[in-house]
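Notes, Module 5: Reading structure tokens.

Key idea: the token line is not a picture. It is a compressed description, and you learn to read it the same way you learned to read a sequence, by spotting repeated patterns. We will look at two proteins. The first is printed below with its tokens.
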Amino acid sequence: MARGAIAAALVLGAIGGEPSCHLTDSSCSLEQLPRDVSTLIYPGGATRCIFSDSPEYGFQVIPGSSEKLLLFFQGGGACFNDVSSREADSAPCLSHLVLQPLFGIFNREKVSNPFRDYTIVHVNYCSGDLHVGNVLRWYLDRQLQRVEQRGYVNALAAVKWARKNVGQLSSLVVAGSSTGALGAQLWMETILQTFSYQAAALLMDSDMAILPSRTEGPLLKGFGACDTGLFETDAKQKCAAGELTIQAVLEQTMARHKEVTMAAISSLQDRMQVRFYNAVCMAEMLPADLTPYDFERKLMTRLEEYNRYPNFVTYLVPGDRNYFLPLEAFFGEAALPQWLSTLPELAGQQISSFCSGNCGTLSSKSFMLTSHPVNQKGELPKESAPSGEAKLIQVPELSRLPWWSSWYHAALLSVALALCIGAFLDRRSPSSYSASRSFSEDDFSDEGKI
């Protein structure tokens, strides 16, 4: 296709001012896209968002230097069962494309942005599966179609495009914010084996997989991640058994790639991580009572475990903020842009952990790269059919649901009814405790409580 025709296609494909390109009509090559402008690329094929009536899937590309690549995994919650996936408007995950504006590390005008000249591939997120899903669920969306989570296929399309359009890289950065940080951790090993680079780094912004015990394995298995090709034999077997954790995946990557900096960015009491932890507890019928202080303790324990690896560093700040990188407030965190400017490191360079507060041994950690990475450009995993009954997409009859689903929903309704009756009786009959005691203003004071 002639260059003029490509330009016309980009203009005609604009959505609300966002240029777009369809891989079914064009190669959408890097050199054809306008530099420093976000272009939405539609890969077609099996890519899709979670619901049957969700818009078409696409990922964003912001062209810059062909020798510097930033792969960024977008965040946006998770949908992991029939209740969380029931309604598009109330689902705790993004179910449609949300375009990333040129804020934060995507800003091309701020001189203090350490990634302003990178080519950025922004892996948009609308599948609710941490970018690793490949499953056809048994339950239905509001169009009476089975919910399908294809985040792995979506991310694979973006990574394939990047691999085809860049060669030897002087700098490779893989990053993600919130649940996107989990996707970055799970994809890092595959990406490092796929690209040729002189220096590389992983940036995990505001999600270190702080989840209830024994829930990660079933989540990953339920997403259909086990057969995607992201995991090698041992990890694949653990995934199939429902025992694989994101922590184990990341630790293996850190141990195997000692020349790659692994950097975590977090606030000490991240409110969204607290909410997600409690949401998983509720879904698994566990006590949902994690407080910000509880989370801080769990976070510090996790970071201390990662701190055993020489190539792991942290940037910690007080407060409950969730994610930093994709927001313009990134530049308000004065030390953060400067801290990131040293990544990824070249041989002889050093980066030190940063902590605003009392962080123990974390604040004294430094990592110096002594040699360049040794890597060979490998092959990406293959795209595969989703787990589940892949051929059965249309389900117009509720009778096609699994035989046990009616009992499952009946049990949920019974529990809800019992709770309502209990609450009603409590209101009708005040307890002897509340009847014999008057409350003072001091009873509602938070002082001294955790």
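Here is the second protein, with the sequence above and the tokens below, as before.
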Amino acid sequence: MELWEVLQVSPIYMIAVSYFMGNLLFVGSMKPVCLIVLGMAGSGKTSFVQQLTSKLHSTNKPPYVINLDPACREVPYPVNIDIRDTVNYKEVMKQYSLGPNGGIVTSLNLFATKFDQVIKLVEKRSTNTDLAIFDTPGQIEVFTWSASGTIISETLAALFPTVVVYVIDIVRSVSPVTFMSNMLYACSILYKLRLPFIVVMNKIDVVRHDYAVEWMRDFDAFEAALSNDSSYNANLSRSLSLTLDEFYKDLNAVGFSAVTGEGFDEFLAAVDAAVVEFETEYCPEYERLKKLQMEARVKHKAKQMKKFEEDVESEAVGGDSINPIFLNNSNLFSAEDERMASKSFHEFLEEQRKKQQSKSNNAPS
């Protein structure tokens, strides 16, 4: 569904629209660059943010860090904005009788109502920092497929260059089937958010990511890795690998170690390339969708105004209007029928008068 269509059918989107549609206009040279960090639980996403933050501080370019995980107990890096300071996750679960995932979704939805304040704080720091890092919940689907996740990502993209960083566990992806599952999830997130996308292959200090890059570039190498597996999952992975070939061509993938910091420079280079992609491809598309939404609003207002004018005219002409059904069937009796009805009524009165006179004459004196 297109952005302008979603904004019309989902009321919660008006939280974001009321802010960035009225006050914001994207400027390509604006900073900071916003990194939305996503990843499966256990992929090393938080460790990646910790190492990235540490490296940036060491180069005297401290990032602006926002924690969006309301369920985490501790954050192992300095945080500028923490969702836990705004929303009490356990209290949300208690008051709304929710489970863990439902509590995270509701907490994010509540936080999204205050996201305009987050934007203002990020804007204030735009002169002092080049990167704003958003660490999302470990339950990746909670952010990517919720209304609040879309509000946050699209609001950021309306203001700043925004890049999605998808962290995968390269150690667990040595199995071709597991690797294909990760790539399918990456593909779904890319087409859901429609923002520049970087795949970070984490934990290269344990297993090098060369095999994964080769599988992405060479179908025969991936086929060879599946040669000893004849299961349904393996056959499906072969078919999907051919299907994802076009997806792989434009996919930016880098290796990274959240322990040693290896791959830091390559990651920053990938971010620079993603920013260029954002300004050349996303911004024109955003302006097109924004124009479509404004046209839809104008048409809707014109339709409402026309209906209002018609209602005013109908009230001014006849005051209390009569149901058109009765207007169409108002001539129920012909003139002859009316005369017959009138004659019958006079005859009835005459008969009653005669009966009354007869009773009076027969009454005893």
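Summary for the second protein:
- Strands lie at 33-39, 64-67, 81-82, 131-135, 162-169, 197-202, 252-256.
- The chain has two domains: 3-298, 324-359.
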